[in-house]
Amino acid sequence: MKRRQFLGLLGAAGITATLGTTAQASSKSFDGYPEAKGVLFDATRCIGCRKCEAGCNKVNKLPAPAKPFEDLTVLNKVRRTDEKSYTVVNKYQGKNGPVFRKAQCNHCMEPACASVCFVQAFKKNPDGSVTYDASVCVGCRYCMVACPFNVPAYEYDDPLTPRVMKCTMCHDQIQKGELSAPGCVGACPKEALTYGKREDLIEIARERILKNPGRYQKHIYGEKEMGGTNWLYISGEHFADIGLREDLGNKSVPEISAGPLSVVPMVAALWPALLGGVWAINKRKEKVAAEEQKAAVKAAKAATKAEADAKLAKAMDSAERDKAQAIEREVKRALEEAEAARKEAEEAAKDGADKDGEGA
Amino acid sequence: MEYYVYHDFMMHTKSITYILMGLFVVGFWGIWAFMTSRDEEIHKFPEHDKE
Amino acid sequence: MSSENKSLMTPANIITGIILAIGVVIAVLRFTKGLGAITNLDQNNPWGIWIGFDLLCGVALAAGGYTTSSACYIFGLKKYHSAVRPAILTAFLGYALVVFALHFDVGRPYRLVYPVFLQPGTTSLLYEVGLCVFLYVTVLAVEFSPAMFEWLGMKTVRNKIHKLTLALTVFGVVLSTLHQSSLGALYIAVPSKVHPLWYSPYLAVLFFVSSIPAGLSMVIFEGMLAHKPWHHMMDKTHLDEHDGVILGFARGASISLAAYFCVKLVAMAYDNNWAYLATGWGAWWLVEVLGFIALPSLMYAMGSREKNIKLIKWAAVLTVFGIILNRFNVSIVAFNWQLPAGERYFPSIMEIMFSIFVVTVGVTVYRFIVSRMPIFFEHPDYKDAH
How far apart are CA A104 and CA A167, in angstroms? Predict the structure, then answer.
């Protein structure tokens, strides 16, 4: 019985799993907002001066760091963004000396953080930025788990109102007209950062690669990775050597989770019918079994009664016969006794007569 | 309505889907209650019916 | 009066008291100093044992509720009837504790209702988990309430709720399927951080299928733990059915563990990850799969065949441990496996103590309820009390 239960569940799970993995957004294509902006980072131009970090800190009014931005010894250790730094520059060992890469939110075209946030605290804006709404955030930190670039940081030291902290591409300031480009872009002295429409940036990047054979890797990082990002990178070194993972694939998190997500409503649609059916079949089985049992009991009762009656009749007969036999025997005995008594009397009479005869 | 971002499209479709799921649950219960409304009472533990 | 006080100061109660006190201290620290002060969570490791154990294991091990109630009420296996109330109670307490523990892990617990009532992030599997857990803890509370109403003598309410049993059971199975699988699906979104031997697009199926032997084994395991201390509360039906429950559930556990094993292999084959078996990670995977899935499946099969209760009980222990091991592997051990050792996560003492505190709260409430309410026995006033 348990087997049936389990097989039933597995069968249904199997069906839904298959249905799940074949579900896709049919024939639509999603190419991002046409006017979306982005930033192109050119690793061959960056000198690791950290002025972008300072610029970001200023325009976002972030707290002052432990060590000032002019302190370049900080680069000796690879850092990640944290709750006080939306961006960090890291130093890596290149073929011909140190190379640097700026790390910050990549403003993905299909952001993982937005996809996994259960309260819609992240939004992909038409201007290309991915922004965070602290007014609804519950602090579950799933966005941090899901971000393949390990970007969002959390205010773990705030006991009651902690926020997720990450680069905003200066969305608010640009919307308000306070800035025409993100704070880091404006601060860079080497034009390692270029702000513009994503499609234009890709063109620019392609051109740079073409016009400078041997200078760059023949790849624009972020063009397709994780479904494409609005922050793009070109580099002389292999991207893995400057801390950019090359094993992420091109599928975005929304695409990856579309499969499992599509199974959810199937369970809600199918399980009640399946379970109700199992229950009904069981009820019917029980009813039939109960009826059969009733009939069997009845038949058994009748059979037993018949058997008992037959036995009784037989016993009665036998008793009658016994009685008759006993009577016969008694009669026979009585007759024999009478006969014997008669014979005795005869003998006695004969003896008496003989005696009398002899004495005359 | 045009969707430029797959995530936005999914947000739309999944929201409708969750509402549908709520309706499924209520609907199934409704159809079940209706269908069994004239059934004989179920005696799961007949030995208790003696009372 | 003094004799009452004496009876309260049992060793069990004293230990409980100490743990509860420590828990309260940590709770206060959490809301005055923040998560950073008491946990080892960091920017790379945002989820620790409060998610890996309290949430993931808590939900998996509370699966006895839906498995037992569906076996009895949907599949009509009446001989498991006496096991339903204890299973529902455990599940209810389990889920209630998950929600309780979550209030300490999330940054703003006062906003936990936002995803359900304010702005649902419907693309998120965590929304799915949250909604289902929210609904299911309600279903469990209602399923448990007849026991409480019987104890309180509130007949009419109790009878009204009792009529809902089938509907609640079906709804409970739907919700359980959804959230058990969605907890696994949470990690489907993170292929870059979970080791290939534990990552799979089938994670939802893996978590759901494994929740079945998890629940069945917990019922056996708890039946085993509760038997001596609560013997005096158990009525004849419960005691008579006890071995039947163990033998029957052993069969279900054996088969469902075997199925789980098969799903694990399918998941391996899907991404062609066999080469990883030759690594250290592979050895660990084999320990989990052979030692804690295949082995207990065989032990259950043998125990069920030979009617060897002792063997079955050990199989239950192995299975429960195996489920905990799997959830830990997916969420902590194999998560962020590529980070250098210095950046990996290990729980802090306070995180561990708090998890112990949460379990202790559950055990304490359980003890209170089973010693008073009709869980292990049928209330004499009710025809088909359970």
Answer: 6
